[in-house]
Amino acid sequence: MAGAPASSPHRQARLRLAVLLGTGALALAGCGGSGSSTSSAAAAAPPHDLPGVKGERVGKEAATGQHVSRADCAALRRRAEAQTGRRLAAASEPTPPSSRCRLDAAGVGITVFLDCGRSAHQRYLNRMVEQNQFGVPEEGRETHPVPGVGDPAPGDQNASWVPDLGTLFATRGNRWLTVAYSVAGISKPRARSGAAALARLGFRLTAHP
Prior knowledge:
Blueprint: H1 9-30, H2 36-44, H3 70-84, E1 89-93, E2 98-105, E3 108-115, H4 120-135, E4 144-145, E5 159-162, E6 167-172, E7 175-183, H5 188-205
Antiparallel strand pairs: 1-2, 2-3, 3-7, 4-5, 5-6, 6-7
């Protein structure tokens, strides 16, 4: 059709994400088929190879004790102070499976959340699909893949920046890290870079049990 927009890398990545979730749903439906060969294969497969009710990888997305400790929050504060050039107050809530580090100053509000609850990775994928569904056609509310933050994946789908929310979402294993980044007077690209740097640091710090 004349005037139809060309497919962008961002839209291709979102399509791949939707296909991935659809594949999980089909696998789940297949497990309930009436054929004896399907039933036998499902019975023979180890539990961690079967999808859960949300499509999650059973046995690989169990809740863990990983968390943003007070020491981790202090390290994140130092990095954010270097980014913003301002002294920040830190407030830590280190209790797993949902922990966080809040950093504040005049004109600055940064929060790093870590979700290590059951099915965190799958819940991240579901959340990104919902974001794109409700964000269309506003590009600022759609997800934009961010390389070098989440686990390697086609289209960098394991890390997503939503410009109008000023928020980066990313996963590594069953850790879902969210960085809400608000600093007065900086551009959205700079905010994205700052959030990505804090996310990479957050993942390194929270690799501990």
